[in-house]
């Protein structure tokens, strides 16, 4: 079986060394948010020390904030 790194280098030879891992993490995080993932859960999955690091992915889920507000039991049913 061929290694993932070897296949990736053949398909995309201009990726700088050690960038494949970063690209995979970024792709996972992007798709996680686009599919309705929770930003706090993503922070924990990625091991980010601060939520600000993880918020870089929030723009990929524009309805995230609206959905979070709508689900808040303290908002009295008011939605944005």
UniProtKB/TrEMBL annotation:
<dbReference type="Pfam" id="PF00589">
    <property type="entry name" value="Phage_integrase"/>
</dbReference>
<feature type="domain" description="Tyr recombinase">
    <location>
        <begin position="1"/>
        <end position="70"/>
    </location>
</feature>
<dbReference type="GO" id="GO:0006310">
    <property type="term" value="P:DNA recombination"/>
</dbReference>
<dbReference type="InterPro" id="IPR011010">
    <property type="entry name" value="DNA_brk_join_enz"/>
</dbReference>
<keyword id="KW-0233">DNA recombination</keyword>
<dbReference type="InterPro" id="IPR002104">
    <property type="entry name" value="Integrase_catalytic"/>
</dbReference>
<dbReference type="InterPro" id="IPR013762">
    <property type="entry name" value="Integrase-like_cat_sf"/>
</dbReference>
<dbReference type="GO" id="GO:0015074">
    <property type="term" value="P:DNA integration"/>
</dbReference>
<protein>
    <submittedName>
        <fullName>Puataive integrase</fullName>
    </submittedName>
</protein>
<dbReference type="GO" id="GO:0003677">
    <property type="term" value="F:DNA binding"/>
</dbReference>
């Amino acid at each position: 079986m061929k290694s993932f790194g070897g296949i990736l280098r053949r398909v995309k030879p201009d990726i700088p060394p050690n960038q494949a891992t970063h690209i995979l993490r970024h792709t996972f995080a992007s798709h996680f948010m686009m599919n309705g993932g929770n930003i706090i859960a993503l922070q924990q999955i990625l091991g980010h020390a601060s939520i600000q690091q993880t918020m870089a992915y929030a723009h990929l889920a524009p309805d995230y904030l609206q959905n979070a507000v709508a689900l808040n039991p303290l908002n009295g049913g008011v939605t944005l």
